[in-house]
Write a structure and sequence with these properties.
This protein is 14% helix and 26% strand. The chain has 163 residues and is α+β, with helices and mostly antiparallel strands. The chain starts with a helix and ends with a strand. Bound molecules: iron/sulfur cluster (SF4) (2 copies).
Length: 163
């Protein structure tokens, strides 16, 4: 499926997750970056030494989760829109997701909108917690949402106007 559509399967994503113990500690980054490409802004943007040193510009990035703070600098820097922040400790029923968002208009903070999967299908509802407009930094805008725990591994975008 991935080779034909470029859409990662759930098992591919699960393999990128940190340990259960790390997931229970607070926010962490996940890089849904699966192919060797000449790219490294995730590494150069990270101030916490959490992206393992590249031996080659084509390396697939790996995260040292002992160092990752979930700061999100990598999310706005990644040109492939492949970096996300996940906080499974956000609340009993919801997970917080920080994700790149390239569309305009930007969503309204506190609005409820469609939560979309990697193929653009609505899989539930998301609440918009924060909107970072990064156009002055020449970086991708970042939105922070909360979604029900059951769907957080599926949700990777939002749809406006259908909330
Ligand atoms: S979330 Fe912050 S600390 Fe973690 S990999 Fe990204 S830039 Fe580094
Ligand atoms: S910046 Fe994004 S696309 Fe480039 S190597 Fe890092 S995770 Fe992959």
């Amino acid at each position: 499926m991935f080779n034909k559509t470029g859409v990662a399967t759930k098992s591919m994503v699960e393999q990128k997750l940190p340990s259960k113990q790390r997931r229970e500690k607070g926010p962490y980054a996940i890089f849904e970056c699966f192919q060797e490409i000449p790219c490294n802004p995730c590494s150069t943007a990270c101030k916490s030494n959490a992206v393992k040193a590249f031996k080659n510009i084509n390396d697939i990035p790996e995260i040292n989760y002992d160092n990752c703070t979930g700061c999100g600098l990598c999310v706005s820097a990644c040109p492939g829109l492949a970096c996300f922040i996940i906080d499974e400790t956000y609340s009993d029923k919801e997970v917080m997701l920080k994700m790149p968002y390239e569309f305009l208009p930007l969503p309204e903070v506190a609005s409820t909108i469609d939560a979309l999967d990697r193929e653009g299908n609505a899989v539930g509802k998301a609440k918009v917690l924060k909107v970072q407009d990064n156009k002055n930094l020449d970086h991708t805008n970042v939105i922070t949402i909360s979604v029900p725990k059951e769907i957080f591994l599926d949700v990777r975008s939002i749809g406006l106007g259908r909330g």
